[in-house]
Design goal:
mainly alpha
């Protein structure tokens, strides 16, 4: 079988891409700030995502790195939990519950004061309303009295006009 001129070039490109992917995966595995994604691998290596997807081993390595990071994160969380003394945990919870009680007590006191202020305001409004109602009733009575007086005066005027009309005839 004869080797074509482009076969050597393809092999060389394949090896370059493999080397770029390997070094990019090494960077991702060493630096936890880098995301374990195909996009990040593509950005670091300079290889297109489709090329990465077509080669299966980079995807397997990325999945392996994801699993490793997850395990490290869980182990770290467990270590933090184990280091805490149960007495300290309970004291922290007690302190948080005290703070919550104080918060709600202050809220209750504020709402109580607000309710008292609103009751006082309502009382003043009722007094004002009652004062204006009585004032309105007095003025309505005055208006009715004045209307009656006006009606009497109209009757007197009519009577006087009739008398004037009879006397002038």
């Amino acid at each position: 079988m004869t080797e074509n001129a482009f076969d050597a070039r393809n092999r060389e490109d394949f090896n370059k891409i493999t080397e770029a992917l390997t070094s990019a995966l090494a960077k991702i595995s060493q630096d936890d700030t880098l995301k374990v994604t195909v996009t990040e691998l593509s950005r670091i290596s300079g290889v297109h995502r489709n090329t990465i997807y077509k080669r299966e081993w980079p995807m397997e390595r990325l999945n392996s790195l994801k699993d490793d990071r997850l395990l490290r994160k869980l182990a770290s969380a467990q270590k933090k939990e184990k280091r805490q003394d149960p007495v300290n945990v309970l004291q922290d919870k007690l302190e948080k519950s005290r703070q919550e009680v104080v918060y709600w007590f202050n809220k209750f006191r504020d709402s109580e004061q607000s309710a008292i202020a609103l009751d006082n305001r309502l009382s003043r409004m009722r007094q004002s309303r009652d004062g204006y109602v009585s004032l309105a009733e007095e003025r309505i009575a005055i208006i009715k009295s004045l209307e009656m007086d006006a009606e009497k005066l109209r009757e007197v005027i009519k009577t006087l006009e009739l008398e004037n009309a009879e006397n002038s005839k």
